[in-house]
Amino acid sequence: MRLTSLDRRDRPQFSAPGHGPGKGRVWLSIGLGSVLVISLSQIAGAGQTPGLLQTPAAKKPAYVIFTREYTRDAAELKTYSQKSPASLTGRTVELLAVYGRQEVLEGSPVEGVVVLRFPSFEEAKGWYDSPEYREARKHRFVAADYRAVIVEGR
Q1: Which among 9, 49, 119, 129 counts the fewest CB atoms within 10 Å?
Q2: Torsion of CA 75, 102, 88, 124, to 10 degrees
Q3: What range does the domain containing 69 cover?
Q4: Residue 57 is assigned to a structural domain of this protein
Q5: Please, which residues bridge with residue 37 across strands?
Q6: Cα 141 vs. chain centroid, distance in angstroms?
Q7: Angle of helix 74-83 relative to helix 131-143, nearest 10 degrees?
Q8: The CATH number of the domain where 138 resides is what?
Q9: What is the pLDDT of residues 4-29, one digit of tens each?
């Protein structure tokens, strides 16, 4: 693929054989009166119809969702609540919901919901499998019935 920088006063010159003006090209303004021309067929691969362009380096966030369905041992749950925050230390994580107001719209009732956001699926999984969180979650396993899910977002 060849990218060509053009002055807006010039007519575009296309160097890719078999590609002319208006045939699957994107014009991007890059400032100072310049235009960057990119062939979409070159980006998407020969013979493929390009979809939405996404930055390959952009990570998708991941959400860890816990639903507590039934508490069996309040003392063990308290121990879990005391130990689990330390497992988040030094990690990029945002607590989006922590046992706030909720309403089950479908399915069985739940006692509470927690939603955490991590920068990527791998970072979320890394936290869940970390020695610090494994130490805390063993108390959660004894304390209550939970469902835990990691889902990749956009």
Answers
A1: 9
A2: 120
A3: 62-152
A4: no
A5: 4, 27
A6: 27
A7: 160
A8: 3.30.70.100
A9: 444 444 444 434 444 444 444 443 33
Whether residue 75 is found in the same domain as residue 132: yes
pLDDT digits (tens, 9 = 90+) for 114-143: 999 999 999 999 999 999 999 999 999 999
Number of structural domains the chain divides into? 2
Closest residue by Cα to residue 24 from 6, 3, 38, 12: 38
Q: Give the C-alpha separation, 26 to 20, whole Å.
A: 12
Identify the CA nearest to 153 among candidates 70, 83, 59: 59
CA dist., res. 21 & res. 115, Å (int): 49
The CA distance from 64 to 67, in Å, is: 10
A 10 A CB-CB count for 40 gives 16
